[in-house]
Each structure stands twice: as structure tokens, then as C-alpha cells.
Amino acid sequence: MKTIYDTPITDFISRGVETVKLTDPVKLAAQRYKSSPLQILLATNDDGRLAGVITDNDLTKLLDMKPDQEVRELATTHDVVAIRPDTELWQLLKIINGENARNMPLNAIPVVDEEKRPIGVVTRDSLRRLLPKTLAET
């Protein structure tokens, strides 16, 4: 018997997430982050594949950086945790709560297609907002 936890996470994906390339200047990343309502930027390599993320923790490094330094020096590019849109809710909940390559809870998880190109993110806030509604509908 299927439950709500077996459903794909597509309803929880926030689309239209700001991106920057690893070769872009950090000044551009700071500007895009400032205008991003999700408080996350996705960093891509030259072919558009996810290569890193930039969160508020990464932005603290800006104080020691020059505006023309590359995003690759700012973004977290190791152990990047990402999921696919066909990930089931129970898997997402485990990953966001710490069962992931970083072994820590996450505030947001990038969602990528089969070629690892970003299509959006799932945030804790979207889960808190939408999960009760989804549960009530089942």
C-alpha cells in the first residue's frame, strides 16, 4: 500500500533558483544572492551542471575576498548533496535531516535532472509550509 511518503517530491520543489558559474566573479554571486528569496545560489560549471552551492555560511568568506575572485573560491563544491525530482518523500526527509554525504542536517537541497543540471531546490521552509497541506489531502 502506497503512503504519502512514497510520493515524488515534485510538489515541494521551488523553481527559478538563481545560479552562477564557477568562473563568475564573487561580486555577481553576492548580488544574485541578495535578490534570491531562497537564500541559496547554485553554482554550475561551464556546461550548466551543478558544481556547488552558496549559502549564508559561504557568504561570510566574502569579507576576505576581492570582488573579481571566482565563485569557485566561495562556493561549497565538495560533498554537494543533490536529489532528482523522482526522489520519494521519505528519502528526502532522511537526506535533509542528516543522512547524506555531509552527515549534517540541510536547510536546502538542490534538485537536478538526469544530466545534473539544476531545476530547483527543496527547502525546509517549503516542507514546513506544504507538508501539512499534502498530508491533509491524502
Short descriptors:
single chain, 138 residues, alpha+beta, CBS-domain, three-stranded mixed β-sheet, two-stranded antiparallel sheet, 26% helix
Task: Briefly summarize what is shown.
With 138 residues, the protein is of the alpha+beta class. The chain has one domain: CBS-domain (Roll), CATH 3.10.580.
Structure write-up:
The chain has helices at residues 26-35, 56-59, 89-96, 124-137; strands spanning 19-21, 41-44, 50-54, 108-112, 118-123. With 138 residues, the protein is of the alpha+beta class. The protein has one domain: CBS-domain (Roll). The protein has a three-stranded mixed sheet with strand order 1-2-3. Strands 4-5 form a two-stranded antiparallel ribbon.
Write the layout of secondary structure elements.
Layout: E1 19-21, H1 26-35, E2 41-44, E3 50-54, H2 56-59, H3 89-96, E4 108-112, E5 118-123, H4 124-137
Parallel strand pairs: 1-2
Antiparallel strand pairs: 2-3, 4-5
Q: Compute the number of strand runs.
A: 5
Total number of helices: 4
Helix content, binned percent: 25-40%
What string, H for helix and E for strand, traces the elements in order? EHEEHHEEH
Averaged pLDDT, please? Answer: 91
Question: Please, what is the CATH homologous superfamily?
Answer: CBS-domain
Q: Could you please say which CATH topology applies here?
A: CBS-domain
Please state the second-level CATH architecture: Roll
CATH class: Alpha Beta
Biggest sheet descriptor: 3 strands, mixed
**Measured on Cα atoms, how large is the radius of gyration?**
16 Å
Alpha-beta classification:
alpha+beta
Terminal CA distance: 13 Å
